[in-house]
Amino acid sequence: MRQPSLFETPVIPGLSYEEEFVAPDEEAILIAQMNTLPLSPFRFQGWTGKRLTLSLGWTYDFENGRFGPSDPIPSWLAPIKARAARFAGLADADLVQALLIRYDPGAGIGWHRDRPVFDHVVGISLETAAALRFRKRTATGFDRLSIPLAPRSVYHLSGEARHDWEHSIMPQDRGRLSITFRSLSAKGIMLAAAKQ
Ligand SMILES: O=C(O)CCC(=O)C(=O)O
Ligand SMILES: [Fe+2]
């Protein structure tokens, strides 16, 4: 069954979400392909995270702040990338980065906004459900909300959801995989042009 979009009017401007974006047999293939790649522990200022990542197309190194080209996005990701672009109202060619993440049990991702070299974020969830939490500072604390990320769902962050809110995922008991595609911001495009 194809679920309608979770919300007709987005809970936060710039946030959209849809279930059943990936078919079960396609999910199995994506998981098998991801398992063949050398994902490595995320590193940040000498601290090693529990989640394993691989950046393709372009990479932002959190260890040294360097942004540059990476191995190309493999052809097995091409069909899902094209559909992710369509879901987000973007051209396929705009999505120049693919970040593959494996969250093993106990791994999550802390509060952050994605790096300013990137613009749109389109994320696909595989294997198990999680909650994507959002918060935005107010005069007295935080506005907060959370959306479910079903396995095989897609979300798109742009505008306010992308720029004004932080997001995070709590550590879970069961593993989850995600594939996020990103476009470059004006700043990213400028930096990329200098590196090509
Ligand atoms: O796993 C996800 O869907 C979110 C990943 C994320 O927020 C990030 O890599 O910036
Ligand atoms: Fe993020």
TrEMBL record:
One of its GO terms (molecular function) is dioxygenase activity. Transmembrane segments: none annotated. It comes from the Bacteria. Pfam families: 2OG-FeII_Oxy_2 (PF13532). Keywords: Dioxygenase, Oxidoreductase. The keyword Cytoplasm does not apply. Residues 94-185 form the Fe2OG dioxygenase domain. This is Alpha-ketoglutarate-dependent dioxygenase AlkB. InterPro entries: AlkB-like (IPR027450), AlkB-like_sf (IPR037151), ALKBH4 (IPR032857), Oxoglu/Fe-dep_dioxygenase_dom (IPR005123). PROSITE patterns: FE2OG_OXY. The keyword Oxidoreductase applies. It comes from Sphingobium tyrosinilyticum.
